[in-house]
Design brief:
By secondary structure, the protein is an alpha+beta fold. Helix content is about 15%, strand content about 40%. The protein has an eight-stranded mixed β-barrel with strand order 1-2-3-4-5-6-7-16. The chain has a six-stranded mixed beta sheet with strand order 8-9-10-11-12-13, with helices on both faces. The protein is globular. The chain starts with a strand and ends with a strand.
Length: about 280
């Protein structure tokens, strides 16, 4: 394993993401990510690995310009950051790109405004949802579990965010619903102040973060909150600790046809770090 690697630090709406450009084998993802996350000079919340042309190091050809999270989970903010990075690699910079990312079976399309730094991406539609009553959950209120391909989120309203509450919910879901969820988040939604505090656990890496923002959590919350709305286009704004994300949900014949999410993305210059 190379001790010196090239990275870019991405800031997609406050969800600081370390993007590793140097080829890394999948078996080394957790070790490399752990070392990078421990570096307080970088102060990252998560690590993504870019598998660009010719960098497949474990038998794949890498030619599809894929991005993989360290636990192979899905991350909407890292996906938007990767799309921005990929758009800048063409001359002139592309205004629309398609990317392949971990935890998502189909490519995702993003539209980039290079003047404002806003990246809008069509997000995967959740595959299932389940309502839990307050009698079922280790809370004094109920919640909604929203499953995406590579991550699941519990949406709870007007519950004070805390690690203890998160841990209780996480343990309940893994013990009573599924132990195979690659990543699990709780979106603490303060409906009176229109604030959302995301807390996310990645199973493979065994990490838990109070995130600056969570795109897949915003998608899950949009899915849950739009359930009582009729056909048409519905916009949601999610103020989060370090950034704002805007979603647009399109419903037709009682079903969701599309969910898009937008917010700012910033990228650092490429840097070389020793791990």
């Amino acid at each position: 394993m190379n001790n010196k690697i090239d990275i870019i630090v991405a800031d997609p709406s406050g969800n600081t993401t370390i993007m590793v450009l140097t080829p890394v084998e999948r078996k080394d993802y957790i070790e490399v990510a752990g070392r990078l996350l421990a570096d307080r000079r970088i102060n990252g919340e998560q690590v993504a690995f870019i598998r660009s042309s010719g960098c497949g190091t474990d038998g794949s050809d890498g030619s599809d310009n894929e991005m993989e999270m360290c636990g192979l989970e899905f991350c909407g903010n890292a996906s938007r950051a990767f799309a921005y990075y990929k758009s800048l690699r063409s001359l002139p910079a592309a205004g629309c790109v398609t990317v392949k990312v971990s935890g998502c079976s189909a490519p995702l399309t993003a539209r980039i405004d290079h003047k404002s730094g806003i990246v809008e991406m069509d997000m995967p539609i959740p595959v299932s949802s389940r309502i839990f009553t307050k009698e079922e959950l280790p809370l004094n209120t109920g919640g909604v579990l929203i499953d995406l391909d590579g991550i699941s989120h519990m949406i709870v309203e007007n519950v004070a965010p805390s690690y203890e509450t998160f841990e209780n919910l996480r343990d309940y879901i893994y013990e009573n619903v599924s132990s195979d969820i690659p990543a699990f988040g709780v979106m603490f939604c303060d409906t009176s102040n229109r604030l959302m505090t995301p807390v996310v656990y990645v199973k493979e890496a065994d990490t838990t973060y109070f995130e600056g923002s969570c795109a897949s959590g915003a998608v899950a919350a949009s899915f849950a909150f739009s359930g009582s709305l009729g056909d048409g286009t519905h916009d949601f704004t999610f103020e989060q600790p370090e950034g704002t994300l805007i979603t647009q949900v399109t419903r037709k014949n009682g079903r969701i046809e599309n969910i898009s999410l937008s917010g700012p993305v910033k990228l650092s210059q490429k840097m070389t770090v020793e791990i």
